[in-house]
Amino acid sequence: MQRIGSWSWKPGTWMKCNRGVRALGLISGIAFMATVVTTGCGGGVEATKAGQAKTRLSETVAPAPATTVGQTASGDAQGAKFFIYAETLTADRPSVYGFIAPRGCTPSGVFKRGERIVWRFEILDVATGKIVTSAEAASVKLRLPYGVEPPADFKQRGEGRVPDAPWTWDVCWDVPLDYPMGVLDYTILITLKDGRTGTWKPPALVDPGRGIDTRPQVIE
């Protein structure tokens, strides 16, 4: 008789032991399959319960949503709707006050007093699906705070120096030296030659709690 650990080895023991191992393996396999069916291979029952608890917590204590100002497409009572892509850039030339940005023709949302701001934008007529050019528009202008309404020109970027440059609407405005600092809200006013009119205000993310405001800013 040979002793292996606490097992006593006798003739015929292997067959009994083998049948026992097979039975134990079958039970373990059934238990594993039951676990998979119960959890759906998603990390176990406890993980599922934790996920449900987390969902309930997020529904109960959801953070206040940020405020979105403006919209991508807008129009007036006449039904004219426009989609506009607009950007503000620094100028590559001095303003009337003699100030110039350190880097010209660069997208920016922050401008100093005395600097020149450049707006470039494209207008899409939602009704026709066509880009609005000077051939369709009777008037396009910006409306800034304090009654300032600079007109927009439809011209080629680079003023023709680059033959294949795109054509866009363009507005240049020099920030007065005593202009109030802070947010610079603006609206684009469109009047078409067929009589339709519309206004567009750029969408902005405003969340004072996190110090976020994507609208253009005037600083000292």
Describe the structure.
It is a single chain. The chain has 220 residues and is α+β, with helices and mostly antiparallel strands. It folds into 2 domains: 2-60; 67-219, Immunoglobulin-like (Sandwich). Helices cover 20% and strands 35% of the residues. It is built from 2 helices and 17 strands. It has helices at residues 13-39, 44-60; strands at 2-4, 7-9, 67-69, 73-75, 81-90, 110-112, 116-125, 130-131, 137-143, 153-156, 167-174, 182-183, 187-192, 197-200, 204-207, 212-213, 217-219. The strands form 5 sheets. Strands 4, 5, 7, 8, 10 and 11 form a 6-stranded antiparallel β-sheet that branches. Strands 3-15-16 form a 3-stranded antiparallel β-sheet, with no helix packed on it. It has a 3-stranded mixed β-sheet with strand order 6-17-12, with no helix packed on it.
What are its keywords?
three-stranded antiparallel sheet; 2 helices; six-stranded antiparallel sheet; 220 residues; alpha+beta
* Number of distinct helices: 2
- CATH level 1 class label of the largest domain: Mainly Beta
Which geometry do the CA atoms define?
globular
At CATH level 3, the topology of the largest domain is Immunoglobulin-like
**Model regions low in confidence, pLDDT < 50 over at least 5 residues:** 1-71
Look at the helices and sheets and give the structural class: alpha+beta
Helix content: 10-25%
**Quick one: biggest sheet?**
6 strands, antiparallel
- Report how far the terminal alpha carbons are from each other: 98 Å
Strand content: 35-45%
Would you list the SSEs in sequence order as H and E? Answer: EEHHEEEEEEEEEEEEEEE
CATH architecture of the largest domain: Sandwich
Rg over C-alpha atoms, rounded to the nearest angstrom = 34 Å
- The average pLDDT score comes to 76
How many strand units? 17
Count of distinct structural domains: 2
